[in-house]
Amino acid sequence: MHVLHCLLHFIMGRVRSCILSISLMLLMYTRSSSAQIGLNWNRLRGELAEGALNTTTGDIQNVLTDILRQFQDFAPDLAGQLPIPGQGEGDVNATEGGEEPPKPAPQFPPGFENLQYVSPICLNHTLTLIGDFQAQKQYAKQMVYSSGSPIPNPSIEFSGLTADYGLFQQCRDVKKEHEGTPFDAEYCILSNYGPEGAQYHSAVCVPASCPDYDLRTIAYTLKGVLDIPVEFHFTCETRPSFTGGDIFVILWCVILGILMLSGTLYHLIKIHTEARKKSNAYEDAPEEACEEDGDHGDDKKVEELEPEDKENQPAAEGTGTDAEREVMNIQESGDDPKKESKSTDGKLGRMLMCFSVIHNFGKIFDISKQKGTLSALNGIRVISMFWIILGHTWQFLGTYRADNPLYMYTQLLPKFWAQTVLHAVFGVDTFFLLSGLLLAYLTLKALKKGDGKINWGLFIFHRFYRITPLYMLILGVWSTLPAHLADGPTVQWIFHGARDTCRRLWWTNFLYINNLHPFPGDLGGQCMGWSWYLANDMQFFIISPIILYLLYKNRKIGFAVIGGILLISTCATIGISYHYGLNIGFNQKPFNNNTADHPTADHLYGKPYHRIPPYLIGIIVGYFLFKLEGKKFDIPRLAAGGMWLLAAGSALGLVYGLYNTTQGYIVPQGTTIFYYAVNTIAWGVAIGWVAFACIKGYGGPVNTILSWPIWTPLARLTFAAYLVHPLVQFVYVWSLPTAVPPTPAFMTYHVIAFIFVSYAVALVFSLAIEAPLMGLEKIWFKRH
Fold it and tell me: Would you say the pTM of this structure is higher than 0.90?
């Protein structure tokens, strides 16, 4: 990147800029003296460190002058040797025989021979750009000044900014804004990969006739001349063509849109027809038309709850996780399992009604019948989702697009309040707890009702059916459409990689093993990296029937199995954290170099052997809720208050206890291992108490807040919101034309915006596929 900038700067008469660019690059990448150039690098570093950035050594200037003058001197001659686009047969300059006389092969000066492999049209346009810039033509000036500054630049010491994406839109619009521009402009990201994995990114605005391989040839030619140990990679922002996968996803979106439109029109016609027959028919028949035998059902029960249980039914009636419909937790209004259907629709009519936007919107936003004591789970779920969006906002905007990363890492994140941002992952552990709780509570009730019998095959299928279609649709959208819909300086660079990854690994997501294959893997290498949660949750769900059946049949054996799994999980966490020397806290280095070959490997974060404790604790809480249902449970107020203090202290300690590490404190390895071993268990116990206390009447004002009706519709959308919120964030972040300030106010506004937009997009997906499939299941599969 520097050499390309330097070439343009030098030929355009900006020698000082060229020298500065190369000098800075040499400062970053050179570690020993160069025999070829014979410079004293230590002296150069010293002058640069003293701020002498406006001057250079005579050696540097002489070397670069000699090298670049060769290219400058031969460039005009080379331009005359290259074919001019548009000339050929029939051209006025052709010979009488109709053929242009062959031109001798261009002669390149020593060191530049590889330029013969660059396409003639690319070289011709590049030299035209250089000449027009020297002539101060507007289009050429706009192209040159649309490029990013050389990276690293002098401000890197104070900002930490290792990327400058220039002016994306101005580069692309050159030909549109300036008549007579001889060629189209192309915006490319140029990435340098230096020693020890250092990465620097900048933008170059080049003729569109120069594909990335031509740019690489030019860059590597100059790299060889200057003997600089750096690797280059180009990604040009060109609109991708539509592939078969893109068309397939678009087709499915169109089909779902047609079904939604058809179902809504059918519903409107039905309303109009029924209204003419009976004034109150709209309140009965249309709302029942999507259900089988009048069963609106709870979102995803294993079995129908008995009528007397309806008052205690949670909004999230689910047999799975927050990631399942338990997160979606759609509770239908006016449900009465013994209510006879008044619908006269045939099966096709009922199926169309399942896609009615009116019908499904009403179900999602119905906040009636929320007197049940489990409604506090809705507030816990939604607040946890808000927390995750908060953490991802700071991560994505702050890490990838902050204009002053050093300020964020040294001034903002070390503050006490920033621990809330750094530990947002505990929101996912809360999801695991709620999943296990609801799974145990509802399944044990179903076992009791069925005299210890459940169709376990249908139990597993029901779970897979409820979450996989929405999951796969969003995965398809993520891996295909953002590259076409988003528009920004790094869109193709980022989403091209996402597309390639998902094409290779989508099947691991479909089988819910993406957190295990390839092993150990890393989150950035997964298709939809945030879907590690769904993989874990499905894996926990698959082993849950054994645990739940044993709990139902023999409590002691059931708890022994849970204790054994917790022990295995704890031992595995201790062993892995010790072996790899894993660190905790802020900017603390690993305790050994066992991760040196794969520093981003995911050894614990997304692995089931580390994440299962909150799920198991949720099962325990759900078991006691099942056993205590309908029974009076008294706890002395002092004991209840003590439990609240312990729970609050544990949770706050886990979130804010590592604050000292931001002030330079190094956590010993033994303490680090202990933290890894107990953090998920302690968090599960703390939130498990909050859920249990609120449900059994010891929640006080906490239960009042968590049981607000406003949480109910948001809780029903949380599963979809979890899946789509990173997609919403990435499309925005990578479309930004410039870097943004990572100030608390700026981030807070974006957190609120991302919450709103994520839930709005989640509503669309829920109306399109999630809610309809719940209704269709009741038509296709009658549950007994």
Answer: no
